[in-house]
Amino acid sequence: MKILFTHSYFLYFDEKQLEQGKPYPPLGTIQAASYLRENGYEVSLFDTNFVKDSFEIKTSLESFQPSVLVIYDDGFNYLTKMCLTKMRDAAFEMIEYAKSQGIHVIVSSSDSTDHYQKYLEKGADEVILGEAEVTLLNLVNALNKQEDISGIDGLAFNKAGEIVTTSQRAILSDLDSLPLPAWDLVNIEPYKKAWEKHGYFYINLATTRGCPYKCSWCAKPIYGYGYNIRSPKHVVSEINLIKSLFTFDYIWFCDDIFGLKPQWVDEFNRELKAQKISIKYKIQSRADLLLKDGAVVNLANSGCDEIWIGAESGSQKILDAMDKGQTVEQIEESTLLMKKHSIKPSLFLQLGYLGENWDDIKATLRMLFKLMPYDIGVSVSYPLPGTKFHETVKSQLEQKANWTDSDELLLMYKSTYSPEFYKKLHRFIHKRFRQKQAVGDIRRGKLKSVVRWAYFKLTSNLFYFQLLLLKR
User: Fold this and answer.
1) pLDDT band at residue 470 under the 50/70/90 scheme
2) Does this model's pTM top 0.90?
3) Does CATH number 3.40.50.280 belong to domain 2-165?
């Protein structure tokens, strides 16, 4: 039984990400492919990242001639968690084409878990709900033997004209039991080419699954609220595997939270040194975790170069409304601590959350320009199914519940100010931030930043006046 794996993120359908030029291989997809290959199935990969039309899958279907097409999105990629409609439509097109060729279709993604009815209506034979590797293997085994699938946990499918959902699949706790991802299936050259504009190349790895924190806007349809972690030795073995296949400069550990357990980072550092491996990497973490004894020092010692934290807001009122579980003081203290130990601090900011007013926005701006992190990611609040935030605003989402691509940045519910205001605020923050960075460059003798500074000063001031007009 031959199985073709693909996913539904198309870089060419997301102009912002294409221009940014920082793509990552579909880690979750090649993990699942590796698992089925280890269990005796012949697998191949149709990587959609650099494909310009969903119907290009035709070539892979004709050459590989699979019995089953598995559309398996990378659950470690935040872009797939956003459930962008361009990607959903592309998945529907691939389903339609595969079914026209008589190929069995299985789908696994955040979006299909939330909206399995839509995918079944478009022709998918089964949708896997939640974490998928074990469910997928059980399902393919049953299909191969022509057995009943009704007893397999974690499925949605049509039966006698009705949609059936089976019991929830238990989350896998022993991540070391999974084989290393099938990195050999990835054509790495287009990724390297895309990163050339930056002068370095990042590759992505995951050490954990799940997140125990319950921020009111954060959905976890695949890996849930548990927190399971691979052993440092298992992670280092994957680093060695990748190093044997191609070269890279940095690693992006794409966990929701890296190093939740401080002793893990210390053990990871020892394992790297024992195998004489030196790496540079970036992670996501939380402000409060970074303030635990030795956390930042251990990260710096093991090669951590950059840390992204979900600062979200400089207003404690908004942080509390989000159930964030951290304080503005912790954000400031952890940022300064990272700088002290030569780690680049980067902040995610979120605009437009329910109850945010002008004073809250100004507090966020004050915090940002006081701390001046290495980089920022700015978005507006995005209601995802399964969250408390979504439940609050879902009555307003009947006309539009998803962005078309990652650059739409549309506020889809009623907040204090208009969607147009938040779009201009987003642009103002980025321009003002880059302006202040340019000022810092000038002070450090980088005279080429003078023109950039003058441009940003002019445009950011203009945006600020436009913001004030919109606020009225």
Assistant:
1) low
2) yes
3) yes
